[in-house]
Amino acid sequence: MFWQKQAETIGRKTLEAFQLERLQKTVRAVYDKVPFYKNKLNEAGIKPSDIKSLNDIKKLPFSTSDDLRVNYPYGMLAVPRDNVVRLHTSSGTTGKPKALLFTRNDLDNSAQLIARCLVMTGTTKGDVLQNMMTYGLFTGALVMHYGAEKLGVLVIPSGSGNTVRQITLMKDFNTTVIHITPSYALYIGAVLKEKGIDPKKDLQLRRAYMGAEPYTEETRARIENMFGIDVYNSYGLTEMNGPGVGFECAEKNGIHIWEDMFLMEIIDPETGKEVPEGEKGEIVFTTLQREAMPILRYRTRDITRAAAGRCKCGRTHRRISRIIGRSDDMFIVRGVNIFPQQIEQVLMGIRGIAENYQIVLESYDEMTVRVEISKSLYDGNIEHLLELKATVTDRIRGAVMVKPKVELLEPGTLPVSEGKAQRVIDNRTL
Ligand code: AMP
Ligand code: ZN
């Protein structure tokens, strides 16, 4: 039932003492080793010795995704380059990506956290986990992979896509657990139905770990019924290792954040001040045991709230609600983070395309880009502009890795905005 029982059920007082010690160490390390942080702390008038209580974290400056980009590739490294054994990058970037570097201990810690998550939801040695996240620079697949291996689970590194092969693998190797995005789970469910395969009878699936994008309680229920399985919400972000930052336990009543690894705060995104207990705000993390790239007070932009009370499972690590939304304009399709500016950049580089566009989201696996063509191109008809439409589709796919549905529109179709344009029309319910 527990992977690291002592750490998972640690008393709050002991945990807080541990957090303070690690926070002090972390601040000292970045001050000494990372010029970027040294400058930032100096500017804020803070010395590492000023951190005397956990509350003093509020004196520290925030870190943002822009800070990571500016310091790409090695600027935030706090250990010699030779001690780094892994690179991951994050999706959803314009220009430079965010590079995250890990030492062997960092990777071991991330694998331990995954092992905790798997054990807490009933997975054991003997289970077969089919890992349907994208392998590569993303954290999603690899971090889960090594964590599951650490536990002694048989991992099938099937990656995402190629649904027919996924189904064959699930059948042939008696897959019991899948790691998947909700949008892909819904898609596989539909394909199984089409092929007359009843997952409840014809497959051995017991549970799914589902994350990388927001989804509702209703979507969880739908997928649970479709497959006859338990679905657990998995929350993470590249900057904090990827998966394994937070995970639901068997109670399915909030996401436990592993607070011995990540110090969590929930703040008002406008003021930067802590919100009252239980109110919604942006979750901010400070790494407590990172060697290669410690990060102070990282602004995730994810909106959630802390859940009240102790969990029945016995773990003392606090829980948060499902991610309710984001405080910036990033959106997620097929598990990929996308900023409207990325689409805009592509559109502005194509001749014949005007500046007015909209991104319409009806589901988590598709986006529609509606864009006006330029007046000079318009001859009363747009049906024949197939080549232009193909160019827009291909360029967007090249930039964000998701193929959009593209609608070309007559000039003047879209509303002209006063002030901030509403570029993203998100009709998905959450
Ligand atoms: P990435 O760094 O590409 O792994 O993306 C991380 C982002 O994906 C997070 O900041 C969230 O916005 C989103 N995300 C990850 N897991 C979940 C989840 N379980 N529910 C909602 N959003 C999630
Ligand atoms: Zn619990």
Topology summary:
Blueprint: H1 5-8, H2 12-33, H3 35-44, H4 65-70, E1 84-89, E2 99-103, H5 104-120, E3 128-131, H6 139-151, E4 154-156, H7 163-172, E5 177-180, H8 182-194, H9 199-202, E6 207-211, H10 217-227, E7 230-237, E8 242-248, E9 255-257, E10 262-267, E11 281-287, E12 298-304, E13 319-320, E14 325-326, E15 331-333, E16 336-338, H11 340-348, E17 353-363, E18 366-373, H12 386-400, E19 405-409, E20 424-426
Parallel strand pairs: 3-4, 3-5, 5-6, 6-7, 17-20, 18-19
Antiparallel strand pairs: 1-2, 7-8, 8-9, 9-13, 10-11, 11-12, 12-14, 15-16, 17-18
Helix pairs in contact: 2-3, 5-6, 8-10, 11-12
Q: Roughly what fraction of the amino acids lie in strands?
A: 15-25%
Radius of gyration: 23 Å
Architecture per CATH nomenclature, i.e. the level-2 architecture of the largest domain: 3-Layer(aba) Sandwich
Report the principal-axis shape.
Answer: globular
Flag low-confidence runs. none
Based on secondary structure, the structural category is alpha/beta
CATH topology of the largest domain: Rossmann fold
What distance lies between the first and last C-alpha atoms, to the nearest angstrom? 31 Å
Strand order of the largest sheet: 4-3-5-6-7-8-9-13
How many distinct folded domains?
2
- How many helices? The count is 12
CATH homologous superfamily heading of the largest domain: ANL, N-terminal domain
Number of strands: 20
The description of the largest β-sheet is: 8 strands, mixed
- What kind of oligomer do you see? single chain
Each distinct ligand:
adenosine monophosphate, zinc ion
Helix content: 25-40%
Mean pLDDT: 94
CATH class of the largest domain: Alpha Beta
